[in-house]
Automatic annotation (TrEMBL):
Its EC number is 3.1.3.16. This is Ubiquitin-like domain-containing CTD phosphatase 1. GO terms for molecular function: metal ion binding; protein serine/threonine phosphatase activity. It is found in: Nucleus. The lineage of its organism: Eukaryota, Metazoa, Ecdysozoa, Arthropoda, Hexapoda.
């Protein structure tokens, strides 16, 4: 029987690499060697996310003909070059937070963009044309939580032996607590296939303790222009609100590590601290625990537009102080 050849695409670090002339009897290990030649990521550091054999992760000895990879198949690679790992392990001289000029607050500019007719028209078009595949039924009388993935729930740039090691600490605890009062939507500026793979990798897709309502990908986003930001793609919550009228600015909150992603809905967005360098920070990052508390605190607020999410930590402190004061008064009365 003639040995046929095929070519595939490897997606890694924002780029695509074509691997040509793979034969039926090429093994996964040999494929990894070819990928190493193109990307510089050593075979032992490669995590090939969607390479499956009979529904399971393909082993190194498996051959290409058993993997059902059609020509042009896009393989998703996770891993880092040795020089990048060495740089990541070096603590920076200045540990102060880097300020991204694109995320500096410009309230007047946000309001102008939010109400621009040209962008509202784009949102209306998305409402009419974008198809949402519901993964789980939405519930009555629940608020809505919209979550980014990269650097919000997952460190997608660092190296690890498994994807779970790059998951933000307390992710499942956070989603379990949030689900009590909020329907949860995942919105990432990537393809739907990539979103689905990441959610499976993190154990979110079939978790018994909470349900994700649906995923949104980059096709639901729109492009806007501002003098300060330039031309950028953003996540307008109006796309969701147009399809699900039960949700609005009154009961929706979005977490994203990039503020400009919610420039169309500035009062509905909360900029989460980015989760990077997982190997250095996984033991001390408690952002999701704190934000779970905040979601609990505001769950009974009738109109989220009355809140300033930029000061969410202060709001929590006031609530905690109020509870402590109440307990102190009760203790004094009982003395």
């Amino acid at each position: 029987m003639e040995n046929t050849t095929t070519s595939i695409i490897v997606k890694w670090s924002g780029n695509e690499y074509e691997i040509k002339d793979l034969q039926d009897d090429t093994t996964v290990l040999e494929l990894k060697a070819r990928i190493y030649e193109e990307t510089g990521v050593r075979p032992d550091r490669q995590k090939l996310l969607n390479l499956k054999c009979k529904g399971k992760a393909a082993m190194d000895e498996e051959t290409i003909d058993k993997l059902s990879m059609k020509p042009g198949f896009k393989l998703m690679l996770m891993g880092s070059r040795e020089e990048d790992i060495a740089e990541a392990n070096r603590a920076p001289d200045d540990m102060s937070e880097v300020v991204n000029d694109l995320d500096i607050e410009q309230e007047g500019e946000e309001i102008e963009v939010e109400n621009a007719e040209v962008y509202l028209s784009k949102i209306q078009k998305r409402i009419q044309t974008y198809k949402i595949e519901e993964l789980n039924s939405l519930r009555e009388n629940k608020k809505l939580l919209v979550l980014d993935i990269d650097y919000t729930l997952f460190d997608h740039r660092s190296v690890a032996s498994s994807g779970i090691e790059l998951m933000r600490p307390y992710l499942h605890d956070f989603l379990t607590r949030a689900y009590k009062n909020y329907d949860i939507v995942i919105w990432s500026a990537t393809s739907m296939k990539w979103i689905n793979e990441k959610m499976k990798l993190l154990g979110v897709t079939d978790n018994p303790d909470y349900k994700i309502a649906f995923h949104l990908d980059y096709l639901a986003m729109i492009s806007v222009y501002t003098p300060r930001y330039g031309l950028v793609d953003v996540k307008p919550l109006g796309v969701i609100w147009g399809k699900y009228p039960a949700y609005s600015a009154k009961n929706t909150i979005m977490f994203d590590d990039i503020r400009r992603n919610f420039i169309m809905n500035p009062k509905s967005g909360l900029r989460i601290r980015p989760f990077r360098q997982a190997h250095l920070n996984r033991d001390k990052d408690k952002e999701l625990l704190k934000l779970a508390d905040y979601l609990d605190f505001i769950a009974d607020v009738d109109d989220f537009q009355t809140l300033n999410h930029r000061k969410w930590e202060e709001y929590k402190s006031k609530k905690s102080h109020s509870k402590r004061s109440h307990r102190t008064r009760d203790d004094n009365q009982n003395m």
